[in-house]
Amino acid sequence: MNQCFATVARGLEALATQELEQLGASSVKSGFCGVAFEGDRALLYRANLWARLPFHILVKLHEFPCRDAEDLYRGIQTIDWSQYLTPDQTLAVNATGKHEQLNHSHFTALQVKNAIVDQQQAAFGDRSNVETQAPDVRINVYVDRDHCTVSLDSSGDSLHRRGYRPAVGAAPLKESLAAALIQLSGWQPEQMFYDPLCGSGTLPLEASLKALNIAPGLFRRFGFETWLDFDPDLLEQLIQEAESSQRDLLPAPIWGSDRSEEVIQQAIANAQRCGVLDHIWFSPIELSDVVAPADSGVLFCNPPYGERLERDSDLGAFYKLLGDVLKQRFKGWTAFVLSGNKELSQSIGLKSSQRVAVYNGTLPCQLMKYELY
Fold first, then answer.
1. 17 and 103: one domain?
2. What's phi and psi for 225, nearest 5 deg?
3. pLDDT above 80 for 165
4. What's the CA gap between 365 and 373, in Å, rounded?
5. Most buried of the four, 133, 262, 265, 292, by CB within 10 Å?
């Protein structure tokens, strides 16, 4: 049974806990910016394939007291690295956390790398090379107070990078945050979904993946695929199960629009990459021309907070226009607006029925819910 830790964005720990429990993880415990859990190899692969919220899923190898650089070096050398890494494989070390003696992550990572390659050199007369972009094995080291935890990163690239979105707009929303916002809203696939400020399409695409029960990890590779104990048959079985569980049709329409023809083309390209182009509708429409495409549904949008429009544009007027469009044209709908600017959100001119605090990267934001009567 593996002891694992899923890293998530701040504030999403409770949602990620629910998600991992639903996937079959055991001993699930929420922490700061992450969730600890246990599971076998099949659960580890399934969590990487299906979890929509985590960034990385780490598998713990060892923990030990660590007061300084010497303790760190010795502790790393107590691990038999030949179980996880051969000299002809590449490695990368990611260090997080710190205390007084180890307060620079680059130095900590260097010390860990030295301990590993020195062990290899002594045993085999050869050593792994460092490869920061696409290593065979990613090692994660977390130093907290006088304690060090060493893990392998089973995900490789962050799981929010689904693999369907090389085309992005100017200020893209992370796929994992988009999935979390949809989860927080309580939206159900039987309700129409519309994003009138969709950019490269992240919110409608994540809604489509959820509604069609498409595993978000189907479009990418994982870190564990280059591990020495990788079981390709198990992964193939899980992929086949995921593909056979997909739905053929959306229960209700999912639409996205944006003022820019160029970003709509990006959204269409992204929809094609994740196999939902035949299910989803994208079109270039100015916000001032947007009308409700149905009597009821859920409207979602992530309007600009300052970076996404020209600097001389009047964002206050833009938010007022958004509020007017919602008030006048979306009666019977529920709207969710993500905003990182309290002053701008007041320009919408509507009273929110609910506000949920979330982080978009390091920026504190609010997801505001509006019941439109």
1. yes
2. -70, -15
3. no
4. 25
5. 292
